[in-house]
User: What shape does this take?
Amino acid sequence: MSETLSKADVQKLAEHLENCQLEVRDTPKITEAHPNMTMSDAYDVQYVIRERKTERGERVVGFKAGLTSRAKMKQMGVEVPCYGFLCDSFAVPDGGEVDATSLIHPKVEPEIAVVLKHPLRGPGCHIGTVMAAIDFVMPAIEIIDSRFRDFKFDVISVVADNCSSSKFVVGSRCRPADQLDLRTLGVVMELNGEPVAFGAGAAVLGHPAAAIAMMVNMMAERGDFMPVGTLILTGGITEAIAVKAGDNVTLRAQDIGSVSLRFI
Amino acid sequence: MNANKRNQYGDELYQALCSRTTVAPLTSREPDITIEDAYHIQQRMVARRLEAGEHVVGKKIGVTSRVVQNMLQVFQPDFGWLLSSMMYNEGESVPIDSLIQARAEGEIAFLLKRDLIGPGVTIVDVLAATEGVMTCFEIVDSRITDWKIRIQDTVADNASCGVFVLGDKLVSPRDVDLITCGMVIEKNGEIVTTGAGAAALGSPLNAVAWLANTLGSLGIPLKAGEIILSGSLAALVPIQAGDNLRVSIGGIGQCSVRFV
Assistant: This one.
């Protein structure tokens, strides 16, 4: 895939998008000013945002998959999911609080998270290598917070914006993958005590481990890989639910317990 | 509504069922029809089927999801009767022309080993009285034109029951978390929807307890050996001839059916 943006433009867009996150303000989608941007340009921007964070001492602790539901992919006109990175600063303790004023227009998604005991490198990564590399599985709530005004974006803008990553909470019971059926593993997300979203692992590209294999093979195109200890959020199982100050969110997942957080 | 009128509508729905035709919504013809009227009409329709040689094999619970409750603006479930001619087993084919405008729902079926007689039934009683749970398709169908139903229409039409298909395993409810168990439906190999147990009234156990208590107050028991369908766990799937459907529920099993 070819690039159309100059190095200076990539730096400028990365700085702009990261500042939107840090200063809690939204922006029009970046493809409006750069209509010829490619997917490769978009990942260039994302990787510069990642450098900016690591240069300030943050640690990349994992990755997230985005656009993993067939319905969402069709809607956005893409054939493959996308990925973003997760830093230690994104982590919220299980049962912890998130200041809603630190986010633009947050939404929560129920996900299945895994941690790796072997590195995963593409190309050629498949569902078997992924299953063999999983140390354990946990439930996760991802808080996404697109920096784009009114959620008006296209897939290229989303990738540049680190796939809307903002916060996440993982925890509860960790179990080896061979004790679980990740395809039928069910999740129930409760908002203020009311069950509002229901789904199963198969909503993520048929199987969460298949989504991971796709991510790893995409990362290989940039020479990137997932080291031992990587945390992977495998993709939203249901529609994202909008949240505000005062809301509490609990995710109950089959055989792996529950996690929760509150917005203040 | 007087008894004659109720019987007349019950007969009309029975005729529609037999001839695979639809009738105009009862609510469009009887603006004052109550849910109680609708259950009397349902009784008449079911009585006609029993007279024709069918047997009661269980009950179904409907309107258990928040989405359907909001759509119908009714915030309680409804129920209908499962009859012997509605039963299919794992892997069997259902002739599509035996149905009018069918749609598939993935559900958990309960097989009872003891009677459950309300009122006063809690989920503890439901667990103790359950032999096992099975993965199941309920194929809903409507004798009302274009599914233009309000709550009274679906209740009168035996809760829009068509046929049901029981899956490959019978699992003790003590071995599975009925709230978080995940459900996946595939149509012709493509995943079309997923869901989880809590989609039915927060727990399928709540749905069965509701049914035992509601029927108990009318003097009707849930009997040992009966099948109870506890409510849809996700969106309805439209079907046509040639479709092959499979539903899997985590910790319970699978169920597949073909429409020919």
